[in-house]
Design goal:
single chain; mainly alpha; 1 helix; 0% strand; rod-shaped
């Protein structure tokens, strides 16, 4: 259904955002 598709993309986007933040942490320290 469209609802599950939206929730999937939201989860995928949240995951990418978290990965991006984690990748940026070392940059902040160095």
């Amino acid at each position: 259904t469209a609802e599950s598709l939206v929730s999937y993309f939201k989860l995928d986007f949240d995951g990418k955002l978290n990965n991006f933040r984690l990748q940026q942490i070392p940059v902040a320290f160095f």
